[in-house]
Each structure stands twice: as C-alpha cells, then as structure tokens.
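Translate sequence into structure tokens.
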Amino acid sequence: MEKHQTIKRSDFTLAPFLKRSNARAFWQVLTTVIPIALLWILIEFVEKQSSSTFLKALEVFPILALLTLLSLRAFSLMHDCGHGSLFRSRWLNRVTGFLLGSLNAIPQYPWSRDHAFHHRHNGNWEIYRGPIDVITVEEYDSLSRSNQLFYKISRHWLMLFPGGFFYLVIKPRLALAHSIIHFIWSVSCEFFHRLRKTDFKNIFSFSTKFRAHHSGYGDSSGELLDLVANNLVVLSSWFFMSKWLGVGLFVICYSIVMTASAAAFICIFFVQHNYQGSYASRKDNWSSLRGAVEGSSNLILPRSLNWFLADISFHSIHHLCDRIPNYHLRACHNQNKNLLLEAKYLKISDIHECFKYILWDHKKQNLRAV
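Result follows.
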C-alpha cells in the first residue's frame, strides 16, 4: 500500500498551531506598511536631491526593488486576512485585509472568496483548472495550430508581467465600470418595460442589477461593496500620490512595483500547483488530503525571501489547514515533516520548468507538459 493511502488527516499535528495573536499580527502589518510609506518618502527625497535623470534612476531602482518585495508581503498578509487567520477577530481581519488589498489595488473580499474556492477544490482539476485556466489534452489537440500557439504564448512566463499589471491595476477598475454600465442598462430597460405597466416597484434593486457577473467580482452585495470601496480608496490614493510626487514619477514607479510584485506572486501561486507530478484528479475519486499534500509544492527559499512571502512557501500545510497563521506555518511544517514525504519541494532553479505543465490529462489524471 502506498504511503499516501495510509496517512490520515488526524495523523497531522495542527491544533497547537491554530492560535492567533493580535500582537504578532499588528507587528507584521506595521513592519510592512511603515517601510512602504518611508520608501515612498525616500523616492521624493531622491527626486529633489538628484539633478541627473540617470543618477535618479540608479538611486530609485533599489528602492523600487524593496517596494516590490514589501508589496509581496502586503499581499501575503492580505491573503492571511482572507482566511481569517492573521488576527483573532473577524472584524480586524476584514478591515486590515481591505487596507492591505488597497495597497495592491485589489479588492480583497472578492479575491478571498475566489481563493476560498481554490482551497475547497485544490487537486480536483475537473472543477478547478488553476490560476491560468488549464485546458485538457483533448481540448488542446482539437485547436488549430494558430490557437495552440496562442495558448502556449498566453501561458508563457513572460506573460506574467503584462498579466500582472492587468490583474492589479486595470481589472478592478474595469469591473467597477462594467458594474455601473450594467446597472444603468438594467434599470433603463426595466424602466421602459414598467413604464408601459406603470409598475415601478424594486426598479432600483442594487442587489440584482449592480453586478459585473463576468468580471470575477460582484457575486454578492458584500463583494460589490468591497469593489466600490476599494476603487474609491485606490483612485483617491492615485490622485494624491500624483499631486505629491508628480504624475510622471508616480505612474512610472507605481507601475513598475505593481507589475513586478503581481508577476512574482502569480508566479509563486502557479508553481505551487502546476508542476511535474502534481496531484491532478477527477472529481469522482478526488481526495482533499492528497490535494493538499501532493497537489501543493513547497518552495525552498532563503529565509529572508520567505519573510517577504510570509512563509507561504510552506504550502502543503497551508492547504491542509488554511486557518494556521503565517507565523506558525514553518513550525507546523517542521512538526509534520515526516508526514510530508509525498509532498513536492521546489528550488528557485526548478521554477521555469513548471511553466511547461499547462495541460491536464483527465484520463491519466496528471499534468502534461507542452
């Protein structure tokens, strides 16, 4: 009998690591947000002190690199808030998650609900096809040569950069615009329909009309509220930052940081589930335990880089129990290491190979390389 068939969820020691600490959580947030603020102030200082454009670029580059890493940390802490695992109270997780999401221009509540779907179905590739919507081998073979080429190019690692910029900066704004247009169109159509019947009851029902059904946001009133509030905060911050630093400097620096950080965390999320040997089951024999242990890779990274990622590299344990705070993940992983022999461990040098595994073979129940 294979080892993964003998291991049960109850074999893992998880309960001691579930305890959340508001003090540790606040410290993590403060040591992320304050350096971000100070680095933006430093950018203004460099802009005023340097007369040469070349020297400004040289001096600003390491600042942008640090901002990118801190943006990754802010996103990782936001991710913890979405699981309700950073703070002890639900209210603190929601408020802090919203603020951290605003730092990265992304509506946190809709994102966390979508991410929860990923956790519920990880490894069940019949229901959830990963962050890049992997297609089956049969679907790929049925495509024309040009569409096959487009599919491969669209999933190439270089597409992380334009894709990341779109994901953070553009998509939430488009979602709001789509929601507004959809609402106006729905109300207008219903108004003229009811005008003939002189029935105006519930004509301005926000819950049914103010939604962007195909945007990835807006599946509930809570998501819509978060989408609107996020856009108000983000657009206001863009306005004030542009007034403070100047439109050109702010847009260039902000675009670089958002593009680089989004590319990095999308890359990390991708390689933690798309790799050779990843558990890729159909729903009829899917195991949530195997999905967590064998369908989530663990990244072997320097401790300093793990700090910026809030230890999300210990991903099998995170999927086994997403209520464990990031500040206990490493200890929990080490405690249960003897039960993670079937788990995948990836080094930085292995990452580029993962981007080949973009096809799902539902017959053999594995991921195929292109």
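Note: The first helix runs from residue 3 to 6.
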